[in-house]
Design a protein that fits this description.
DhaL_dom_sf; DAK2 domain fusion protein YloV; Rossmann fold; glycerone kinase activity; 4 domains; alpha/beta; 537 residues; globular; FakA-like_M; four-stranded antiparallel beta sheet; Serine Threonine Protein Phosphatase 5, Tetratricopeptide repeat
Length: 537
């Protein structure tokens, strides 16, 4: 039984938490509101904490930073490793939780019960601060409950406070379906919150040698309507504004309130220096001037970046003579070859923050656009962009949601234009490209298109199930018909690694019969899970 959280306990907590996440990885991956086989929160948390453990293991003999304790230094290493290895939204938020935790106790001589409660509250503040418009029923709710549980313990008994935090977090997790309709409809609890509960349980085990008492998550039910859009900002706002800001914490508090009235997707993360520091500011707005003026009122904004989205933003091109580059996240050998042929630096799917940062720096360019091609990679890309700004590289993250949108954007690139104008032109091209994904259902569900069973063919348009079929070729042809019914001149087909021979030829022939004036381009994409990706411009 430990009465303080020392550096050795921090290292054991990281190792034990990683092992526990690996044990629960599949379970957490299954907490997915879509009946498609791409839920990966558990995998992302495992990879994020793996990076944290690597950071700790590589610095066993490093002396603490000036002014920090040994346990504070270990926690900061853990947080920094998590940030650079963060994957997915849950991984990025977890890295902020660890950073807030570390900052709260870095100079505390001994971390006992009340200090743990303070650290969990600071972790909660850091997590909520990093998200512009927090949504309850998520990882944020669970970490806040953990902090409240620790505070209500009202003790300096470290194991007792840790137990209280873990118990409160588990109870909050069980209530998440009551707070977020998407979870209730899908019959699941929040995946990120479940991962945090696993980490808190691991902390209890390290401190006490005993397993934490858990509140079992509610049983899965038959999945109802998959109507929730994948994580992204509202299409109501047309511009992404990013800048670094030298300002005091009080001024940033006012800035946040102002930016919240102007747009969404607000993220403001500081470097932790007091009383003043440098802050990374990100927001989606329609009034760019008002957002920049708010920054001027708060302090000294610099490295200002503005990207126009045009509904669904798009990306710039590969390296050019004037110091520009594009980094594209691509899953599938064929898709990677297409982007490489356009001069882009290609990174395999689901990269960490550190891997994206290395790719950006590896281009040698001063202006880089990152194309995540997946909503879950956007948060990782934004974290990498913030880190890149520290190295003097101007990075714009354009939240493309499908490789076909990135292909449309790269097709109109022009290195003779101003960088900002080129980004806008490519964003408009990507926004004009509607996309669809065809896959097989991995579980029984009730979608907006009706009930589906494992093995059924699902056609998702812009992330929402539109068609359910039994024959792959027929369903692919039907979804192309549906998309062309809204207009279109060019269809792009990317065949997946498991696509049957002749699939794209059959769809091409169908389009030639039904839509004789539409051009079709087909490529072997090699992507997993989705036998066919479709783009219509």
């Amino acid at each position: 039984m430990l009465d303080t959280l020392d550096a050795a306990a921090v290292r054991r907590w990281c190792a034990s938490g990683l092992a526990a996440l690996k044990r629960h990885q599949g379970e957490i991956d299954e907490l997915n509101v879509y009946p498609v086989p791409d839920g990966d929160t558990g995998t992302n948390l495992v990879l994020t904490l793996t990076s944290a453990q690597q950071a700790l293991s590589m610095d066993l003999d490093t002396l603490p930073d000036s002014g920090s304790t040994a346990h504070g230094h270990a926690l900061r290493l853990m947080a920094q490793g998590a940030l650079l290895g963060a994957r997915g939204n849950s991984g990025v938020i977890l890295s902020q939780i660890l950073r807030g935790f570390a900052d709260a106790v870095v100079a505390v001589p001994a971390v006992r019960g009340r200090a743990l409660a303070v650290a969990l509250r600071a972790a909660t503040v850091a997590a909520y601060t990093a998200v512009g418009r927090p949504v309850e029923g998520t990882l944020l709710t669970v970490v806040a409950a953990a902090a409240t549980g620790a505070e209500q313990a009202g003790s300096d008994d470290l194991p007792a406070v840790a137990r209280g935090a873990a118990r409160a977090a588990a109870e909050a997790l069980a209530r998440t379906p009551e707070q977020l309709p998407a979870l209730a409809r899908a019959g699941v609890v929040d995946a990120g919150g479940r991962g945090l509960c696993v980490l808190l349980d691991a902390l209890v085990e390290v401190l006490t040698g005993e397993s934490a008492t858990q509140i079992a998550p509610p049983p899965r039910t038959a999945r109802p309507a998959a109507t929730v859009a994948r994580e992204t900002g509202s299409e109501e706002y047309a511009y992404e504004v990013q800048f670094l800001l030298d300002a005091s914490a009080d001024a940033v508090t006012v800035l946040r309130r102002t930016l919240e009235t102007l747009g969404d997707s607000l993220v403001v993360v500081g470097d932790g220096r007091e009383p003043g520091g440098t802050w990374n500011v990100h927001v989606h707005v329609n009034d760019v001037g008002a957002a920049v003026e708010a920054g001027v009122a708060a302090g000294r904004p610099h490295r200002i970046s503005v990207t126009r989205f045009a509904d669904q933003p798009a990306p710039p091109a590969g390296p050019t003579e004037d110091g520009r580059a594009a980094v594209v996240v691509a899953t599938g050998s064929g898709i990677a070859e297409l982007f490489a042929a356009e001069g882009a630096t290609v990174l395999p799917g689901n990269p960490s923050t550190g891997e994206l940062l290395d790719a950006v720096r590896g281009t040698g360019a001063a202006r880089v656009v990152v194309l995540p091609n997946d909503p879950n990679t956007e948060a990782v890309a934004s974290a990498a962009a913030r880190e890149a700004h520290r190295h003097g590289i101007k990075v714009s993250v354009v939240p493309t949601r499908s490789p076909v949108q990135a292909l449309a954007a790269l097709a109109v690139r022009d290195g003779t234009r101003r960088f900002e104008d080129d980004v806008i032109a490519m964003a408009e091209a990507a926004g004009a490209c509607r996309y669809a994904e065809v896959c097989h259902a991995s579980r029984e569900a009730l979608t907006v298109a009706g009930p589906c069973r494992p093995g059924d063919v699902l056609a998702l348009v812009e992330g929402e199930v539109h068609l359910i079929g039994t024959d792959l070729t027929d369903t692919c042809a039907a979804v192309v018909d549906r998309m062309l019914g809204g207009g279109g001149e060019l269809v792009t087909l990317l065949a997946g690694v498991d696509a049957p021979a002749g699939l794209t030829d059959a769809v091409r022939a169908h389009v030639a019969r039904r839509w004789p004036f539409v051009e079709v381009q087909a490529y072997p994409g090699g992507q997993p899970f989705y036998p066919l990706l479709v783009g219509v411009e």
